[in-house]
Specification:
Helix content: 25-40%
Strand content: 5-15%
Largest sheet: 5 strands, parallel
Structural class: alpha/beta
CATH topology of the largest domain: Rossmann fold
Bound molecules: glutamic acid
Strand order of the largest sheet: 3-2-1-9-10
Order of helices and strands: EHEHEHEHEEEHEHEHEHH
Mean pLDDT: 91
Number of helices: 9
Length: about 300
C-alpha cells in the first residue's frame, strides 16, 4: 500500500487533562483527516517533561478514545524523540543555520535597552543577534536558528493569506533551551515531517508560530504542510480557555454532549440532540468535507520560497 495522501495529527501537550478547548482542536484535526479518507495520528508533546505530570498523556489518550477519536497508529511521545531532535540540530549547525548562544534573559534585555528598544511586560524579546558572530569566549547555553531576513508568506485554509517577517518580529529563536530541553518549534517541525503529516489542523492561538516553523522546515529541507487554524473556546476572562483560567477536565460521562459542544464551536451542528456519538461523528465528517474540502486547498510551496524583501 502506498503512502496515504492525507495525514493529519493532534499534538496535545499533556500539562493537564483534555478540556473543552483542546477537544475542539482534536476533533477538527480528526474530522479533516477522516473527511479526506486520510490517516489521523496523535503525538503527545511532552518534551517539556517538567510541565507534564506523570500519567497525563495516557489520560488524554483515554479521553480522546471516549470521544470516539482513535489514532490510526500508536501515538508518538516527544519525550522519547531526543535523538531525532539532536540529529536535526547538528544538521543545522553543520550548515551554519544554527549557532550556540551564551546570552541570559537579562543580557538580552540589556542589549535591547542599549538599542533604545522599549520593552512592555509581555512583549516579544526579539533576539538582538549578540552571539551570531560567535560566543566571544562565553559558555554556550542555548542554540538558536539563524533566521533569514525577509517576509515569509503562507496560506491558511481558514484564515487566508498570512505573512510574517520572522527576523524582525521574533529574531533568531531558540531550538534547544539553556536547560537542555528541546524547544517546541524544533520538536514540532521534526516530528511533523517524520510522521509524514500533510495537514496541520490546530487552534488559532498557534497561527503565529507557523512562519517560524516554515522557516525551520526550509532550513532543514523539509516539506511544508497545509495549515488550518481553528476557532478557540474562550474563558470568562475573554482569553483562550486553558488550565490557567479555569478550564476543567471534560466530563466524559456524556461524551456525546462534549462532542456536540465542540462541533458547535466548529460551526457544525447537523446531528439532533439525542443522536449517539458515532452518528454525530459520521454526520460531522460529511459536513466537514463540504465546508473544508482539501481538494480546493492551496498547497504551500514545498520548496523554499524566496523571501520577499520588505519594501522600505
Ligand atoms: N502541543 C501544542 C499545544 O498543545 C500544539 C502543537 C501543534 O499543534 O502544533 O499547544
Amino acid at each position: 500500500m502506498g503512502t496515504p495522501r492525507v495525514v493529519g495529527r493532534f499534538a496535545p501537550s499533556p500539562t493537564g487533562p483534555l478540556h473543552a478547548g483542546s477537544l475542539v482542536a482534536a476533533l477538527a484535526s480528526w474530522l479533516d483527516a477522516r473527511a479526506a479518507g486520510g490517516q489521523w495520528l496523535v503525538r503527545i508533546e511532552d518534551a517539556d517533561t517538567q510541565r507534564c505530570p506523570p500519567g497525563m498523556g495516557e489520560l488524554v489518550l483515554s479521553q480522546l478514545a471516549a470521544c470516539g477519536l482513535q489514532p490510526d497508529e500508536a501515538p508518538w511521545w516527544q519525550s522519547r524523540r531526543g535523538d531525532a531532535y539532536a540529529q536535526a540540530l547538528s544538521a543545522l549547525v553543520s550548515t551554519g543555520a544554527a549557532y550556540p548562544c551564551a546570552c541570559t534573559r537579562r543580557e538580552i534585555e540589556g542589549a535591547l535597552a542599549a538599542r533604545g528598544v522599549a520593552l512592555a511586560r509581555d512583549a516579544e524579546r526579539v533576539y538582538p543577534g549578540t552571539c551570531r558572530a560567535g560566543l566571544g569566549g562565553r559558555a554556550a547555553r542555548a542554540w538558536r536558528l539563524r533566521v533569514p531576513a525577509g517576509t515569509l508568506q503562507w496560506q491558511d485554509r481558514r484564515l487566508g493569506p498570512q505573512q510574517q517577517d520572522v527576523a524582525r518580529d521574533v529574531g533568531d529563536f531558540v531550538l534547544r533551551r539553556a536547560d537542555g530541553l528541546w524547544a517546541y518549534q524544533l520538536a514540532v517541525v521534526v516530528d511533523d515531517a517524520a510522521q509524514g503529516v500533510t495537514d496541520v489542523v490546530r487552534g488559532e492561538d498557534l497561527a503565529d508560530n507557523t512562519a517560524r516553523q516554515i522557516a525551520l522546515q526550509q532550513a532543514l529541507g523539509l516539506p511544508t504542510p497545509r495549515y488550518w487554524h481553528g476557532p478557540l473556546v474562550l474563558a470568562a476572562d475573554g482569553h483562550k480557555l486553558s488550565k490557567q483560567n479555569g478550564a476543567t477536565a471534560l466530563d466524559l460521562r456524556d461524551a456525546a454532549a462534549a462532542v456536540r459542544a465542540a462541533l458547535a464551536v466548529l460551526g457544525l451542528q447537523t446531528a439532533h440532540r439525542n443522536a449517539p456519538l458515532a452518528e454525530q461523528l459520521q454526520q460531522a465528517v460529511a459536513e466537514w468535507g463540504h465546508r473544508w474540502p482539501l481538494a480546493a486547498a492551496a498547497h504551500n510551496p514545498s520548496q523554499p520560497c524566496i523571501p520577499s524583501k520588505e519594501t522600505p
